[in-house]
Amino acid sequence: MNKLLILCFAMIMSCTSTALNKSDDMQKKGEILMSESQGGTDGAGFKIIKNEQDFIEAIKSKQGESLVETGSEPVAKYPSFPAGKKVVLYNQGRFNSGDHRINEIKSISVKDNVLYVEVPMYESGGMEIQVLSNPWFIFSVPSNYQFTSVQLKSSK
User: What is the reported pTM?
Assistant: First the structure.
């Protein structure tokens, strides 16, 4: 009977520690707030967005004329600015073909003041229409991350 009780207690404790690990993993994963395939700069680079006003201005400048206001309501809805997190605007640079928009962040980490953002590898579907694109995305990371550069890592 004691062995059964100890076994049940051990199983409950292992489930409890697993739940805690999942919440830690969620904090180490970045959240994409907005991602587009056009509107970025020709070169790769990043900018930390400090407040909600800068956040909305960055989106407006990237999307340009597509955010025309009609009356009192804007055509597009802006994502909310996350409280207690750092928000990063990342321009991916120029591409000659394909859709290089980032839709998922697998993981994020900081090493030697470099923020590494792991994203799914872009897979070409074969022949593609040659269209220049300048993709960009805005994402959030934990506020305690300190970094001076951002690097994308592609993985399967």
Answer: 0.70
